[in-house]
Specification:
Length: 409
């Protein structure tokens, strides 16, 4: 006879209680291991974002107008694949863009699952540079293109149905943190749009918009090299460190003005100086406006941008939406579905992808091309502007800003 509650070794009751005890021990050990792992792990995840030494500034600074700041808290829908398409040819600018691309990768908390560099160059040195860049980042891919002139059709052979593509020029040198999210969300919520573009600093028709919105300021080029000991190119991007412009009374920038010397800067004029006496005054709302052809327009816009950036006044460029209504729209950075690219049959066009996507396909489908004015990016130069901008210190300034805030440390 066993006392009340006494266990018999080998009995079924005993075996049941032993099993329960073993389960309790296993669960307790598992919880202990999880607690230990949590408390011994780094307090910050080792991502690109946390490698930055200080937080990014907030670019929208007008109280009550936050709707124009863009999609800062938008979560990527499950199963959505987003791929960046970068037309590669210029290592100098891609070295800057690379920092923004990495910041936007899924692995670093962004939205881009992959970035495909579409090589449109035969310069072996530049291709070897790209190979080093791609080898260091698993999300990067290089694809070589067969190309001739302005025929960009073959670039889109990589596109697949069900994927959202962010097509980018390789000389984007600034990109708001939320630019990709803002474009993608707008494109998803508005399937009636064929393509959604970013708000681009230094893009012909948008140059007129920015001029009209008061985002472009009065700047002239320095005509003589600075005194000895003063660095003409500088390492800082801040416009506040520029001296005031000095020059002949009533001087204006000639229409075909040549760069005064390599590495020259553009300097601020008094706030009272009339903008209609500066280069930007001859721009117009047209894809082939004066701003496309003249580097002086680009230079004035870039130095104005640095002033607005430093003052936290990028709101000056902002608007909610601009519908091009079948007119030609710039595609320096756009969001577009792979399905639409494939269905557009671009190989049977003239090879001009900007014309094909924003004029031909919008007319054919009745779906418009629009700019989301909340997603701001900066574009270095078009071909007619390139040599003039190369003679300024603009690229060094964009590099300096990226080093300060965007690139990993």
């Amino acid at each position: 006879m066993l006392a009340h509650g006494e266990l018999r070794f080998g009995g079924s009751g005993y075996r049941l209680k032993v099993q329960k005890l073993l389960v309790l021990v296993v669960v307790s050990c598992s919880l202990l291991l999880l607690w230990n792992a949590k408390n011994t792990a780094p307090t910050t995840s080792p991502t690109y974002h946390h490698a930055i030494s200080r937080p990014l500034p907030r670019y929208w600074s007008v109280t009550g107008q936050g709707a124009l700041e863009g999609e800062t808290d938008w979560a990527k829908p499950e199963g959505l694949r987003i791929v960046g398409l970068v037309f590669f040819g210029r290592p100098e600018s891609v070295g800057i863009l690379d920092c923004y691309l990495k910041r936007n990768l899924v692995s670093n908390g962004g939205l881009l699952d992959e970035v495909i560099f579409l090589a449109r160059t035969t310069k072996q040195e530049d291709l070897e540079w790209l190979d080093e860049l791609v080898a260091a980042e698993p999300a990067y891919t290089r694809i070589d293109l067969l190309f001739e002139g302005i025929d960009y059709a073959s670039a889109y052979d990589v596109c697949e149905n069900g994927t959202m593509y962010i097509k980018m020029d390789d000389d984007l040198v600034f990109m708001e943190d939320h630019a990709v999210a803002t474009l993608v969300k707008t494109k998803i919520e508005h399937p009636e749009y064929f393509v959604v573009a970013a708000n681009v600093v230094n893009q012909p028709s948008l140059s007129w918009m920015h001029y009209s919105l008061g985002a472009v300021h009065a700047y002239f080029p320095e005509l003589l090299p600075p005194p000895p000991g003063q660095n003409a190119t500088g390492s800082l991007w801040r416009a506040s460190e520029l001296p005031r412009w000095h020059g002949p009374v009533n001087w204006t920038v000639p229409h075909e003005f040549e760069p005064p010397f390599d590495g020259h800067r553009w300097l601020p004029l008094p706030k009272s100086f009339p903008l209609d006496q500066t280069p930007i005054a001859s721009t117009s709302f047209d894809a082939f406006s004066e701003s496309l052809w003249h580097w002086t327009h680009a230079a004035q816009q870039h130095y104005s941008f640095f002033e607005n950036l430093e003052k936290n006044e990028l709101w000056r460029y902002k608007f909610r939406q601009l519908d091009y209504n079948y007119r030609r729209m710039g595609i320096q950075m756009i969001a577009i579905w792979g399905d639409d690219i494939i269905a557009s049959d671009i190989h049977h066009g003239n090879g001009d992808d900007e014309y094909h996507f924003t004029e031909v396909m919008t007319e054919r489908t009745g779906r418009h091309a629009v700019v989301d004015g909340r997603a701001l990016v900066a574009h270095a130069s078009f071909l007619p502007q390139r040599s003039g901008i190369a003679a300024t210190d603009v690229m060094q300034r964009y590099r300096a800003y990226a080093d300060d805030f965007i690139c990993p440390r």
